[in-house]
Amino acid sequence: MNDIHTMNHAADNIRILAAAMVEKAKSGHPGGAMGGADFINVLYSEFLLSDPDRPTWEGRDRFYLDPGHMAPMLYAELTLTGRFSIDEIMQLRQWGSPTPGHPEVCIERGIENSSGPLGQGHAYAVGAAIAAKFLSAKTGNPTFARETIYAYISDGGIQEEVSLGAARVAGTLGLDNLVMFYDANDIQLSTATSVVTSEDVAARYKALGWQVTEIDGNDVAEIRRALNWAKSVEGAPALIIGHCVMGKGALQADGSSYERSCKTHGAPLGGDAYRNTITHLGGNPDDAFQIFPDVAALYEKRLAELRQLAAERHKEEDAWAAQHPETAKMQADWFACRLPQLPWDSIQQKAGEATRNASSQCLAMLAQHVPNMICASADLSNSDKTDGFLKQTHELQRGDFSGAFFQAGVSELTMACVCIGMELHGGVISACGTFFVFSDYMKPALRMAALMELPVKYVWSHDAFRVGEDGPTHEPVEQEAQIRLMEKLHNHSGRPSMLVLRPADSMEATECWRLAMENTTSPTALLLSRQGIENLPAGTDYAGTRRGAYVVGGSDAQPDVILVASGSEVSTLCAGAQLLRKDGIRVRVVSVPSEGLFRQQDAAYQESVVPRGSRIFGLTAGLPVNLQAFLVGAAPESRIWGLESFGFSAPYKVLDQKLGFTAENVYAQVKEMLA
Ligand SMILES: Cc1ncc(C[n+]2csc(CCOP(=O)(O)OP(=O)(O)O)c2C)c(N)n1
Ligand SMILES: [Mg+2]
């Protein structure tokens, strides 16, 4: 066991480095980092198991930071473990540095998740804990049962509503591989926590099925004891409430205590306060970026221990792999995002189906052929039709993770965060379903999945006002425009941050699911109809789907007008085209499952589908802006018919009539346009 003096010295070293980084950057958050230093030091020097020579080792323990503003704490710790250099942490918050203001996922450097939006980070840990249990059940590889998933949460994360959902899921599923540390320092950004909450947090977590202990979060011996206890808990997740001191060890310019002050939350200590603090902690204010020799030795020793511990685990893994070569190969494929050959052509799509049902057929095939896929639904599986997947498997349950369906309950944001966590863990493909209108509840997580380039699949049914009788609360209008903005936003790899697909019929739905599965570098959204849709005309080559937009079968050469839409509006256009043809008008119909994808095609292809100067008529059940880009370079009389108000409660066929989504209106609009 490491001696307490060295351990406290190491924690002070972390405090010094954190304060120094923020001071040098002239911005950042020293207070929380200084308070959490003792916990993170004990965790990394005595508990968290990784392989120093193989950072991406599948069986490593994982640490998910929720309060990303405590980045300096994590960077300081990872400097002690050798994943960052002093030079790099001196570049905190600077252009091009690996030490951005809030941590960004980089497994190689030991950063398991991007964090910043409070609450989400610890919810990812719940997903990762599920992934570990699932992989253990699916592979039998003993390594996954030995993993511990650690989460670090602060007052802000506890206050965020997602913490309720995450805790409910973890408690219900009995995730005893999950250990969470709550840095309860009674201080937040602008107030003491007592101003905004009087909650008994321990009681909440106990009520949700967790085991809870409370400790002095700055006491090495208590932290150590609590971590040992937490790891021994069976059948439930463990919460350690650590009462920490904000700005632990900080002094003001006049030498008085600077602890427990909101002012240290988000600003450099500054001037003499900084100098006094560093001196008080045993550092040199003129040369603060140092690792103390005894601390370096502590982490040298840990490095050697880790090498040995990891080697033992690898030996166990190798023995398992030798006995189960097929499963071991499969596991390697899963972590490398390699899919097996999938029998897409075997999927029998019925004509005239709703695309949510078509999606269900695809999910049924995937459930049978993609053993590392977990599908979730926020209590709508029989409506969003993710039950196609569920029917081929069973639900994940406390003590039994051999199924592959995650019943998330009515908590869309929690579900979306848990899916992120599964993807971050690695080895698992995640999909989740709900009504499209409730994607609004998921947006904060979509953004993070997009930023982290995680290929979560979103299955959003009831894609337009044709939800009908349920009325305007349930009818998405602006959602498609919102989500398609993510196709315009590029990720740091230079690609669209999300792929958004809205299939025009059941056959196109299969192609969209195929694209979703092939996409391993960004999230994919599938926007699916509630109502049945007439199939596209005979002769349609659905291979065009992968180009984002394509000319559907039966279109006329040298068209007088090009009709453009996505989803079920394409079939309305096809019906309108029939009426127009009776008047001798030559019509081309273009299906645009993804404009984002279409814009990635070469100019010649784009020109071949919608030649410049064409007369365009677009039809969208969302805001007209969905198709506005097709008016650029088009003939001036071109127009778009969309929906510019909330929907209404009525049978959907009545709504189609009232809102102008009929073949007759397409005919009337185009005639007027061509006149
Ligand atoms: C979703 C979200 N809302 C608001 C913020 C801005 N913010 C950053 S830290 C913070 C307060 C955090 O208090 P606490 O978690 O107790 O951290 P401490 O002050 O103890 O470091 C706030 C409001 C955020 N990062 N995420
Ligand atoms: Mg706090």
The total strand number stands at: 16
Average predicted local confidence, pLDDT = 98
- Beta-strand residue percentage: 5-15%
Instruction: Report the uncertain regions.
Output: none
Give the termini separation. Answer: 87 Å
Biggest sheet strand order reads: 7-6-8-9-11-10
Shape: elongated
Largest sheet: 6 strands, parallel
Q: What hetero molecules are in the model?
A: thiamine diphosphate, magnesium ion
- Separate helix tally: 25
Oligomer designation = single chain
Class by SSE composition: alpha/beta
Radius of gyration based on Cα positions: 28 Å
Q: Tell me the helix content.
A: 40-55%
Structure characterization notes:
With 675 residues, this protein is α/β, with parallel strands linked by helices. 42% of the residues lie in helices and 11% in strands. Strands 7-6-8-9-11-10 form a six-stranded parallel β-sheet, sandwiched between helices. Strands 1-2-3-5-4 form a five-stranded parallel β-sheet, with helices on both faces. Strands 12-14-13-15-16 form a five-stranded mixed β-sheet. Helix 5 (120-139) packs across helix 17. The chain binds thiamine diphosphate and magnesium ion (MG). Thiamine diphosphate binds next to helix 2 and helix 7.
Brief description of this entry?
By secondary structure, the chain is α/β, with parallel strands linked by helices.
Strand-helix topology:
Blueprint: H1 4-25, H2 30-47, E1 62-65, H3 71-80, H4 86-89, H5 120-139, H6 142-146, E2 149-154, H7 155-159, H8 162-173, E3 178-184, H9 201-207, E4 211-216, H10 220-232, E5 238-243, H11 271-280, H12 293-323, H13 325-335, H14 355-369, E6 373-377, H15 381-384, H16 387-390, E7 405-407, H17 412-425, E8 429-435, H18 443-452, E9 457-461, H19 479-488, E10 499-501, H20 506-518, E11 524-527, E12 550-551, E13 561-565, H21 569-582, E14 587-591, H22 595-598, H23 603-609, E15 616-619, E16 639-641, H24 652-659, H25 663-674
Parallel strand pairs: 1-2, 2-3, 3-5, 4-5, 6-7, 6-8, 8-9, 9-11, 10-11, 13-14, 13-15, 15-16
Antiparallel strand pairs: 12-14
Bound molecules: thiamine diphosphate and magnesium ion.
The site of thiamine diphosphate has 17 residues, from helix 2 and helix 7.
